[in-house]
Amino acid sequence: MNTRMIQLGNLFPHFQLSSKAPESAPSQSPKQLPTLPELLQHVIKLTGLRREDVYSNLRIPDQFQAAKDDISIVILTGQGVFCIDVKPWKGSVSAHNKVWHVQVKGEDQNFTNTCIEQMDDPLKAIMTKTTHLRSHLKRSGV
């Protein structure tokens, strides 16, 4: 089973993945981020995959079947199984020493406010979920 991190900005250039409008067109309002169903439709259209090869919000039991994890998107191909977690983060995302931060700037008429929020490591989380999916498939005889 393969796990890969993809650059959504490169795969989906017409979806605005930033909360700011492009600097070259300040009068335009920023586009809304795509919903998960819209993103799935785009993935299917872009890749030519069949609908039955793309799953969303897949619930996977852990090894003890005591808890379940959600994986936003699971794509089945002849090359492997790809697990993608979609995050509702808005702003600049950075990672330093396995600590992830999301920085959001809010602007008002008189001041600019910057908020930095620390997040759990999303790569570790998707790797754990992928391991649970692989184990579940093996237990099921796949």
Distance between the termini: 12 Å
Radius of gyration: 18 Å
- Widest sheet: strand ordering: 1-2-3
Q: Output mean pLDDT.
A: 76
With helices defined by DSSP (H or I, 4 residues minimum), what is the helix count? 3
Count of separate structural domains:
1
- The counted number of beta strands is 6
Q: Per DSSP, what share of the residues sits in E-state strands of 2 or more residues?
A: 25-35%
Q: SSE order in H/E notation?
A: HHEEEEEEH
Query: What is the makeup of the main sheet?
Result: 3 strands, antiparallel
Features:
single chain; 142 residues; alpha+beta; three-stranded antiparallel β-sheet; 3 helices; globular; disordered N terminus
Describe what this molecule looks like in 3D.
It is built from three helices and six strands, in the order ααββββββα. The strands form two sheets. Strands 1-2-3 form a three-stranded antiparallel sheet. Strands 4-5-6 form a three-stranded antiparallel sheet, with no helix packed on it. The chain has one domain. The protein has 142 residues and is an alpha+beta fold. The protein starts with 7 loop residues before the first helix and ends with a helix. The longest helix has 18 residues.
